Fold:
Amino acid sequence: MKQNPDQPADTAGLRRRAEERLKRQRPEGEGRRTELETARLVHELEVHQIELEMQNEELQQTRAKAERAMAQYADLYDFAPTGYFTFAADGTILAANLTGARLLGIERAQLLNRRFGSLVSEADRPDFNTFLLKTFAGGELEICEVALLKAKTDPLFIQIEAVVIAGRQECRATVLDVTAHHLAEAERERLLSELQTALEKVKLLSGLLPICANCKKIRDDQGYWKQIEAYISSHSEATFTHSICSECFHKLYPELDDDPVNSIRKLMAPFSKQPTGAHPPGKIPPEQLQH
Structure:
């Protein structure tokens, strides 16, 4: 762009017209100042200059304090252990700290102006919408727990606490990761279910059991007859070891007395007198008895 050659002349003319106007505004002789007045004016200007410099120093100090406070606030906000969000009435994310962005696994720049409800699982989305309506309708703290959808990972369970601010155009919200608590509750429910199933199996043994009057077998739910030991073992944690009662002992071995030591000696006496490998006629060798 070419400069106007008349511009310096215009500037000089403007100054000349300004001086003429100043002369017209001052009374005659007022433009002349004495040396004392000039010195006083210079002094006032110097004092005013120092005042401006002092004010500038104070402003610089105040600005430095404000910058330090802002940096401290940024650290407390961005690196807090809790996710902080600012929502609009429709759930649009207006602000978020770095912790909240890391919690969701999305860059903060990509979170802004995005609806938080789009990150909530479809099953919990109605609950989140109801939570927003209650938050902006009232002035008290509202709490909800929802599951978020994270790509290629297990669902993330979070707890949101929010309260509306003045004007009811925005709400401040904190977001906590409660996945561990949710998994612990799920594990607790699983253990309770297993315990309930085990109790139901135990109750089967406390009901009426169809048992054979002769062989003492028990009929199961499928109609099969099982030995009582097998039935009880399959419906409980009990195990069996076999022995013989005194009544059956006398029925099976009437020639023996009640002393088990003497009874064993009497049973083993015929075998101890025989040569190795021999046994009395009609008697079963001990090794066959063991089998």
About this structure: The chain has a mean pLDDT of 78. The first helix runs from residue 7 to 25. The domain at 78-183 is CATH 3.30.450.20 (Beta-Lactamase). The longest strand covers residues 156-164.
